[in-house]
Amino acid sequence: MNSSDSWKRLAADPDPARDLGYDLHEWEVHRVSYRDGDQVVFVPADEDAFDREAYIVASADALCETLENR
Q: Above 60 in pLDDT, residue 1?
């Protein structure tokens, strides 16, 4: 079976962990203000999961509520 067939068999709203195999983790959100705009930093809530590459930085205006933008 090719990957296209696999995608077609998924539910329209698949469960991220069960159907897609994602490992779910809790993240903390920190808002930081700068002169040139606000930034949002996401870091793992579990300190053991944190390392130099385990974070996300985004401009505040790049965020959206996914349930409202389907």
A: no
